[in-house]
């Protein structure tokens, strides 16, 4: 089976049609406004699957498929084509984006059923789908940047969906502005690329980048990475993502876990050749990723809002992906992107199901013992948790092991060591989440609403089940055989150039040697975290040990400090508030003072002097016109004098 | 499609059609207010249609100036009535005619007094604006330039807000200082030409003067005088403080025209006259203008962040956005031939002029819509408009994001091309100005948060049923702007193709001067 490449444009175009239609007609349609957006996304998914299949089986040939639409910017030599390009990397992203996108649409039918603005919600979701698909399909940097901004817009309006709520409005604004900080870098990177190479076509840029000065390449790599740091919420721009949880939960699942936040990883992967020519920038990428991974994991330890735990977990896992990319494990990075997309999407939708069940409560301290009441949610979330923790044979195990293993083999022991620690922490905070939510005895609040706790409609449960399946199998499907996994075969043509440039020696895979040992170590790490956590926070009917948790945190000054640091998110929000809102605000005030008193003050002062002079002159000359005439004459004399003076020199 | 307009003085027709309308409105008795409105709107629409015909008839493949009309006017000084259009003129003429009919339509509700004088002022204003964009005789240009001043002075001074007298006098005096300097420069240039050639013939003719090649002293003197006049109009930092005052006091339509067209007179003047006529001086002083532009871009955005009045906020955003226009022009002047980015800066500048006209025009209309209902523009009193007026909120949000520079809408491409030019000139210039991306998002989204988001404020709730959603006629004024914002966002080639020749032409003058300078 092959799908004609001319159908590729339909993948993003169907959702934008859905947006346009629903934005204008949705209000009138009312209850069933979800239908058109949902059907279009399903159609888009079906075409995408056909395209992906064709591409991965070589149906479009070596170079992949390209469909050019029109010349967006024809400014002399600055020419930007809107063209879609499908290669194996894009195919991988298409699988994640369209599948999870479709399931989130379906889930939202149930989740948003009682919201009066749900037509708006579906319109926005479709807009997001369009933007995200444009992002992964675009063949030109400027079109990627356009999509980059459009996903930012979709994210903004969806975080702020419940705009009467102040916290939602603030979170939306924060997300957009913090992202823009990274975008400044990305935009400058695009300018640098064009000025240096005269083109923004990604394939051509990757081809020619090696001809530039090393310093220019490093600069470009750094600037592009700034964009990735913003969109993928890496340190120091990580602060927007946890706040973004103000958006409805399907949004958190789709945009802020499974797709949009991956855009940064996709971007660096797409430009891997640039980074291969700037190895020191790859170290920076690895460092930022590793640091974010452990920073976010440490914060996830103490959060009590179920969605925020998952948000910090997302940050941490994205950190893994950047770490993998930085050490040169490009494939592992994309592999983790895919598996993470599925199980984190699942976990978020599961958390939505929990929140729905306990009447819009997100505080895990008010939950507990829910596994009996909402079994489907519980079991699917348990699968997601196991997958995320890296327990074999679930999805996360394979991708995480690839990251850790390759870091070690390639000699990045610090990435491996910290990564391993993060793996322990991940299993710990995830089982803490499970324990506080599903196990132990119900909290007072949960008891008070016990009778009314129930599962959502089938539209919510079906996506959970459908996401649980890949969360179990996709790792094994793409990660086997361990020595030469399928995902490596897929992505080999994409990363071949970058890997050749890097020229890193990768020894033969030894299942019964170092590689096997690394697997055992990482599985042991995950198990350790999970077991300790389950002992403290419970597993099914086992008892919980809140006293032990308290004793552990209060045991020493160091642990007390770490506890407070974790709880306060290492004070980053406070620091930024001080720097940019308080101090920045003062600076802005000073500039406004300058504008009013100095700039405008000079103008008005001149006016006063002139009108004072005018009062004197009025004794001789009366009336406006004459005054002007005098002014003209006077000016002429002065100017002519100045001119003659200058000319005579 | 090719339209043949041989023998038809199309440029004159477009320019003076509004004057005919003004005369007719003048003779209609005051009690037939409906008829006056219909005549004014009809004239503006007819002018608009005529300008679209011009757009269709202008051949981008041949480029250059077309539809030239020349008649002797004051032969003793070689002053002619010379008008013609190139791509740049056509683009700005269409922008002007579009915004004028929209402004007139948007005025019918808010303007309660002296409708006749108001309509006449508006139509004469249009004559002046169009004349500036088509005049190729320096004296004629100056006359049109001054024609613009008077009706705008009246529009702000008579139909403006509480502090209108202060604002309008400030506007007039400030602009007058600049235009008098410009007059001196025009006369000085003509005199220098006459003394060099011994004839007044061509002393005010654009093409003759461009080809003449003045000595550096005169260039410096004349360029600075011209540039100051234009810089005040743009307005460039630090000559911008008349703008917020004028905007705040002007009636809605006045603000639309002020931001949409009047500011463009400055950018147009720089590209058409100051740079190509005095290319040596332009290159010599470009760095000064680049520095002021970068300051304006960042400074305007930061000051906008702190504004408490909706109109003032939009006014300061104009200072920031117009900084791109001057930045783009002057980086192009300095980038040598053959270096990537040379044309892009000025192309972006022109694109930015058109887009700023559309987007900021729409934003002022939107502020006007809310002012109609609340009689207030204080941001602090707003809040939660999303719920009671959802359609208004959606349209407002659309234009805000256009102003933020969202790709796909028209603002983006122009700004990006300017950035590219700036980067090619000096990466640091681009790096510093790029921070406006953050500030613009900050001041605009903070405004959205305070105006549209949150709970409905007490002040707005107190208005009860007066707080109605946007009306069809108001949508009618915004829809064409919205459509253009989308179309030009997706197909900016429509403008870029039009202006390409103009940019090449101006930069060729700059290059020729450089070469001549080296040979000397």
Chart the SSEs and their pairings:
The complex is a heterodimer of chains A (649) and B (520).
Chain A: H1 10-29, H2 35-56, E1 65-75, E2 78-86, H3 88-111, H4 118-137, H5 141-159, H6 166-197, H7 202-208, H8 214-231, H9 240-243, H10 249-258, H11 263-270, H12 272-276, H13 279-300, H14 306-327, H15 330-357, H16 375-389, H17 395-409, H18 413-438, H19 444-448, H20 458-479, H21 486-502, H22 514-537, H23 546-554, H24 557-567, H25 572-618, H26 624-648
Helix pairs in contact in A: 1-2, 1-4, 2-3, 3-4, 3-10, 3-15, 3-20, 4-5, 5-6, 6-8, 8-11, 8-13, 10-15, 13-14, 13-18, 14-15, 14-17, 14-18, 15-16, 15-17, 15-20, 15-21, 16-18, 16-20, 17-18, 17-20, 17-22, 18-22
Chain B: H1 10-27, H2 33-57, E1 66-74, E2 79-85, H3 87-107, H4 115-134, H5 138-159, H6 164-197, H7 206-212, H8 216-233, H9 242-249, H10 252-277, H11 279-305, H12 310-334, H13 342-374, H14 390-404, H15 411-425, H16 427-434, H17 436-451, H18 458-462, H19 472-490, H20 493-519
Helix pairs in contact in B: 1-2, 1-4, 2-3, 2-4, 3-4, 3-10, 3-13, 3-19, 3-20, 4-5, 5-6, 5-10, 6-8, 6-9, 8-10, 8-11, 9-12, 10-11, 10-12, 10-13, 10-20, 11-12, 11-17, 11-20, 12-13, 12-15, 12-17, 13-14, 13-15, 13-19, 13-20, 14-17, 15-16
């Amino acid at each position: 089976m092959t799908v004609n490449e001319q159908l590729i444009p339909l993948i993003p175009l169907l959702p934008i049609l859905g947006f346009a239609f629903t934005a204008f007609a949705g209000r009138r349609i009312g209850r069933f406004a979800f239908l058109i957006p949902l059907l279009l996304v399903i159609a888009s998914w079906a075409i995408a699957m056909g395209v992906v299949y064709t591409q991965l089986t070589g149906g479009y040939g070596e170079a992949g498929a390209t469909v050019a639409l029109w010349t967006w910017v024809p400014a002399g030599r600055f020419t930007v084509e809107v063209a879609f390009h499908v290669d194996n990397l894009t195919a991988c992203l298409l699988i994640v984006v369209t599948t999870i996108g479709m399931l989130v649409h379906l889930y939202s039918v149930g989740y948003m059923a009682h919201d009066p603005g749900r037509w708006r919600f579906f319109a926005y979701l479709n807009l997001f789908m369009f933007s995200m698909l444009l992002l992964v399909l675009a063949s030109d940097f400027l079109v990627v940047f356009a999509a980059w901004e459009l996903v930012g817009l979709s994210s903004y309006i969806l975080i702020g969906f419940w705009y009467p709520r102040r916290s939602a409005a603030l979170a939306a604004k924060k997300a957009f502005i913090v992202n823009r900080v990274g975008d400044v870098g990305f935009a400058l990177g695009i300018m640098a690329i064009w000025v240096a190479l005269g083109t923004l076509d990604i394939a051509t840029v990757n081809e020619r980048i090696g001809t530039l000065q090393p310093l220019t390449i490093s600069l470009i790599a750094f600037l592009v990475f700034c964009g990735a740091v913003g969109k993928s919420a890496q340190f120091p721009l990580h602060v927007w993502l946890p706040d973004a949880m103000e958006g409805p939960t399907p949004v958190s699942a789709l945009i802020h876990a499974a797709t949009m936040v991956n855009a940064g990883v996709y971007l660096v992967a797409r430009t891997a050749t640039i980074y291969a020519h700037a190895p020191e920038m790859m170290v920076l990428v690895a460092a930022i990723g590793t640091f974010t991974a452990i920073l976010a994991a440490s914060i996830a330890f103490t959060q009590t809002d179920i969605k925020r735990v998952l948000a910090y977990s997302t940050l941490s896992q994205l950190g893994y992906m950047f770490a993998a990319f930085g050490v040169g494990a490009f494939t592992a990075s994309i592999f983790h992107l895919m598996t993470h997309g599925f199980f984190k999407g699942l976990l978020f939708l599961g958390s939505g199901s929990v929140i729905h069940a306990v009447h819009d409560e997100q505080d895990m301290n008010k939950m507990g013992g829910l596994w009996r009441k909402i079994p489907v949610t519980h079991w699917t979330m348990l699968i997601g948790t196991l997958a995320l923790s890296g327990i074999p044979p679930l999805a996360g195990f394979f991708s995480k092991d690839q990251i850790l293993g390759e870091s070690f083999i390639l000699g990045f022991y610090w990435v491996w060591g910290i990564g391993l620690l993060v793996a322990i922490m991940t299993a710990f905070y995830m089982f803490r989440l499970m324990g506080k939510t599903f196990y132990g005895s119900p909290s007072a609040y949960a008891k008070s609403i016990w009778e009314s706790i129930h599962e959502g409609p089938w539209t919510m449960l079906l996506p959970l089940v459908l996401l649980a399946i890949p969360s179990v199998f996709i790792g094994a499907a793409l990660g086997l055989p361990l020595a030469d996994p399928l995902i490596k075969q897929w992505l080999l043509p994409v990363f071949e150039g970058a890997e050749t440039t890097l020229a890193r020696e990768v020894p033969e895979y030894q299942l019964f040697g170092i590689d096997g040992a690394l697997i055992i170590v990482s599985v042991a790490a995950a198990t350790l975290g999970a077991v300790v956590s389950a002992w403290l926070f419970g597993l099914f009917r086992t008892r919980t040990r809140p006293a032990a948790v308290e004793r552990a945190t209060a045991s020493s000054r160091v642990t007390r400090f770490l506890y407070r640091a974790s709880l306060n998110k290492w004070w980053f929000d406070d620091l930024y508030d001080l720097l940019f809102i308080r101090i920045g605000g003062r600076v802005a005030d000073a500039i406004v003072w300058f504008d009013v008193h100095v700039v405008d003050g000079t103008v008005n002062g001149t006016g006063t002097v002139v009108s004072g002079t005018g009062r004197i002159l009025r004794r001789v000359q009366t009336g406006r016109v004459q005054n002007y005439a005098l002014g003209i004459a006077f000016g002429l004399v002065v100017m002519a004098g100045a001119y003659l003076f200058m000319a005579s020199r | 499609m090719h339209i043949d307009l041989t023998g038809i003085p199309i440029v004159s027709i477009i320019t003076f059609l509004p004057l005919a309308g003004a005369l007719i409105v003048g003779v209609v008795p005051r009690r037939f207010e409906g008829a006056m409105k219909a005549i004014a709107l009809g004239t503006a629409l007819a002018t608009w249609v005529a300008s679209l015909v011009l757009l269709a008839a202008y051949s981008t493949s041949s480029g250059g100036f077309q539809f030239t009309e020349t008649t002797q006017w004051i032969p003793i000084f070689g002053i002619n009535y010379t008008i013609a259009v190139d791509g740049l003129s056509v683009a700005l003429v269409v922008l002007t005619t579009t915004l004028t009919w929209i402004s007139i339509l948007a005025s019918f509700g808010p303007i309660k007094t002296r409708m006749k004088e108001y309509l006449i002022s508006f139509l004469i204003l249009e004559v002046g604006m169009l004349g500036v964009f088509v005049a190729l005789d320096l004296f004629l240009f100056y006359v049109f330039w001054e024609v613009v001043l008077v009706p705008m002075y009246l529009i702000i001074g008579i139909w403006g807000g509480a502090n209108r007298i202060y604002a309008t006098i400030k506007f007039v005096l400030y602009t007058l200082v600049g235009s008098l300097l410009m007059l001196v420069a025009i006369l000085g240039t003509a005199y220098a030409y006459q003394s060099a050639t011994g004839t007044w013939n061509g002393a005010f003719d654009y093409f003759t003067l461009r080809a003449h090649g003045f000595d550096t002293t005169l260039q410096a003197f004349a360029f600075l005088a011209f540039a100051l006049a234009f810089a005040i109009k743009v307005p460039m930092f630090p000559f911008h403080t008349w703008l917020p005052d004028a905007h705040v006091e002007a009636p809605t339509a006045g603000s639309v025209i002020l931001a949409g067209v009047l500011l463009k007179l400055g950018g147009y003047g720089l590209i058409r006259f100051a740079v190509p006529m005095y290319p040596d001086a332009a290159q010599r002083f470009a760095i000064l203008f680049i520095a002021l532009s970068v300051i304006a871009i960042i400074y305007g955005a930061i000051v906008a962040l702190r504004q408490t009045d909706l109109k003032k906020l939009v006014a300061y955003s104009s200072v920031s956005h117009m900084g791109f226009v001057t930045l783009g022009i002057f980086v192009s002047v300095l980038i040598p031939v053959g270096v990537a980015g040379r044309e892009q800066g000025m192309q972006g500048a022109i694109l930015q002029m058109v887009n700023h006209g559309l987007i900021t025009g729409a934003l002022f209309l939107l502020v006007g819509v809310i002012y109609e209902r609340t009689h207030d523009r204080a941001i602090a009193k707003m809040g939660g408009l999303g719920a009671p007026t959802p359609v208004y909120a959606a349209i407002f949000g659309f234009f805000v994001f256009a102003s933020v520079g969202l790709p796909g809408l028209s603002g983006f491409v122009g700004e990006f091309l300017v950035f590219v030019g700036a980067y090619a000139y000096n990466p640091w210039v681009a790096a510093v100005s790029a921070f406006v991306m953050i500030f613009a998002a900050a001041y605009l989204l903070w405004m959205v948060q305070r105006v549209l988001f949150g709970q409905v404020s007490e002040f707005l709730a107190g208005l009860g049923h007066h707080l109605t959603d946007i009306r069809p006629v108001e949508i009618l004024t915004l829809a064409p702007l919205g459509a253009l914002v989308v179309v030009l966002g997706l197909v900016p080639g429509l403008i870029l193709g039009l202006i390409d020749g103009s940019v090449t032409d101006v930069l060729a003058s700059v290059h020729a001067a450089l070469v001549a300078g080296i040979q000397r």
